[in-house]
Amino acid sequence: MKNINTNVLIIGGNSSQGISIIRSMGALGFKLSVLSDKHLSPGFYSRYTYKKYYYDYRSKILDDSDVFGLINNIIVNDRIDFVFTVEEKIIKILNDYKDKMYKNCIFLIPEQTLFNKVLRKEQTGKLFEECGFKHPKTIAVNTRESMPSFCEMTFPVIVKQSFKSKIEYLNDSSRDSVVNRKPVLNVEDLQVILSNIIAEDQLIVQEYISGDEGSIMFVAENGCLRSAIQSVYTAEILRGLSISRKSIALDKELSAMLSIFCKNTNWVGVGGLDYIKAENGYHILECNGRFTASTNLSLCLGIDLPCMHLEAFTHKGTYVCNNRTAEYDSECHDATLSGLTWWLIYVILGKVKHCGGKLNALLYYASFFICNKRNFDMFLIKDPAPAFIEVLSMLSKPFTLLANKFYMKKRLYL
Fold first, then answer.
1. Higher pLDDT, 409 or 252
2. β-pairing, 203-207 with 212-221?
3. How far apart are CA 22 and CA 204, in angstroms?
4. Which pLDDT score, from 0 to 100, does residue 356 have?
5. pLDDT score of 117
6. Does residue 227 sit in the same domain as residue 294?
7. How does DSSP classify residue 201?
8. Torsions phi, psi of 182, nearest 5?
């Protein structure tokens, strides 16, 4: 079905999930405008992109009202019908200024109260408790302010960074603790680590739980679960930062938990739960009220989550989806080319351990070029330009890393 008279604005064309949304909506015939904060955004060069807009909405000097004004101008001028975004910052802004938005447009974003609960870790924990889920106790820490009390924490704990915020480590020991998520055994050691970190945003102190980490991405409509895919991480540069994942059969216990979560929150649209499967069952780590890195994996499985997301908000069957179940029977692997390439380099250099050794890591990397069930998220024969832009970005990264390393050394000696 072609929807040539329906206009969609997609905010966040840099990420793999942004590209996946572009391709999903573009293949259905929607007329797409893409807004990004990078000039060389892969989403700008997709064959499905009709208009492109650059705006540095991450800049600290910009007021939220200015960012909303720009977005609303695009919506009005292009007569946008639907807005997709993968950016938490943008979701918050659109929620804050919803009463001023262009009346004919539908923002496909979570309701503000619910979004705040999944965004703020202290509220997320309460949400999980209401659902009866096991979850590790978590405290958000702002290193620029006085440290909170950790007397209620059960040690060991780990310190996690938000990958959206910049962090300065004043010594290698603190960097190693955060990057490798090493368990911290007592309050004294934790205070020493935190005192040697400067973060622009919050850090997360979380009780350590041993087990296998994964995620489940889903779409619900009015609290009713429509579809979900479960995946586990197959390659990580940093612990918890997955650059490759594979789908696994949907676990019945986790699926039942997810249904409870959707019903209790009256969830609408896409979401994701990160979990650890320990000896005593599933522990839910966090919830994402947005599209995650598994978006392309869902498309590889033939489950069009972006389309289902739109339908969940419009409550119409106009935009036909092929899959409305939470079942799938094939194993697929999905990775970012740049991420998996750097992972392989780190394995070869000995900076990252791979359980199968260096040779098996090389074979796993090579398999993405020859196996039809293993896909790089940016690569698509029908739409190759975003992948070309990613390769250019990957080739420039060593120079960026060298410049940052020189800058950090200079800062340490000042």
1. 252
2. unpaired
3. 32
4. 84
5. 85
6. yes
7. S
8. -75, 135
**What is the domain count for the chain?**
3
- Residue 328 and residue 222 in one domain: yes
How many CB atoms are closer than 10 A to CB 305? Answer: 32
Q: Are residue 176 and residue 216 in the same domain, yes or no? A: no
Q: Which of 225, 215, 216, 310 is nearest to 266 (CA)?
A: 225
Q: Which residues, 6 or more positions from 351, have their beta carbon under 8 angstroms from its beta carbon?
A: none
Distance of alpha carbon 139 from the chain centroid: 21
Closest C-alpha to 186, from 170, 165, 208, 202? 208
CA distance 7 to 46: 16
Going from the C-alpha of 128 to that of each of 13, 209, 260, the distances in angstroms are: 31, 16, 10
pTM summary value: 0.86
Largest CA distance in the chain: 62
CA angle 188, 190, 194 (to 5 degrees): 120
In the chain, % helix, strand, coil (3-state, to 5) comes to 40, 25, 35
The two tokens of residue 369 are 């070029």
Token digits of residue 228:
């979900």
Q: Which of 109, 128, 157 is the last residue of a domain?
A: 109
* Strand 49-54 with 82-85, pairing: unpaired
